[in-house]
# Entry
Amino acid sequence: MNDELGNRIKTYYEEPARVLLPRKSWVVIRVDGKNFHTFTRTLERPYCRPLAEALDRAAEYLAGEIAGCAFAYGQSDEYSFLLSDFGRDDSRLWFDGSVQKIASVSASLFTAAFHRHYAEPGFAAFDARVFAIPHRPDVIRYFEWRQADAARNSLNMLASHYYSHEALLGKSASEKHDLIHAKGDNWARWPADFKRGRMVRRVADRWAIDNEIPVFPRNPEFLQELVPPPET
Ligand SMILES: Nc1nc2c(ncn2[C@@H]2O[C@H](COP(=O)(O)OP(=O)(O)OP(=O)(O)O)[C@@H](O)[C@H]2O)c(=O)[nH]1
Ligand SMILES: [Mg+2]
# Structure
């Protein structure tokens, strides 16, 4: 009876909700702080390094757990992981490409690792989404897009450090730069990791943080070398 009931539940209800990612594709997992606008309210602005470092440690840990992880890129309250199953015909995607399993395990491992390294009170949570990108140039564009977001976020954070929300409404990026200059500061002089984001990548046999990554479109070979080539 119990087997029958279990089979019924599984075949009627659980299996139809099992979504699998395609094999032989690039896969991105993006983990993002849930409601960090509120969680970070009391943290240092425009850039809270202990927060960034706890995110880095969590990303280092998760990169080590993900089968076939190539690298991870992080900025603001998010980290994106690139993985693939290329080069090994017998290999499977992480969790056989099960969307629910990958997303839920990524979010929970990242949250647990973040809290191990982040001592402040408060309870952070992260969501995760996972998707395949079958077209290699779009994998490169994906990371360029997240890095452009890092530049926009850091400019907004710095501008709102000096000006009210109302004073910045409708202002273009170059107007925000001018307003920051008027306060004697300069976005360009802020550290690279604040403006461009950070990377977790393999150095020798271990995962390491890179705080000095280039602007991707200005150094196209940087991502070209990190994104796995397609299988032929
Ligand atoms: N104080 C501080 N806040 C930061 C820093 N980095 C990121 N944040 C905050 O993190 C937020 C991230 O924004 P989002 O991910 O778009 O929004 P969210 O509030 O997390 O909402 P959801 O992601 O939709 O759950 C920003 O609005 C900032 O307030 C930092 O270095 N210092
Ligand atoms: Mg968020």
Notes: The chain has a mean pLDDT of 95.
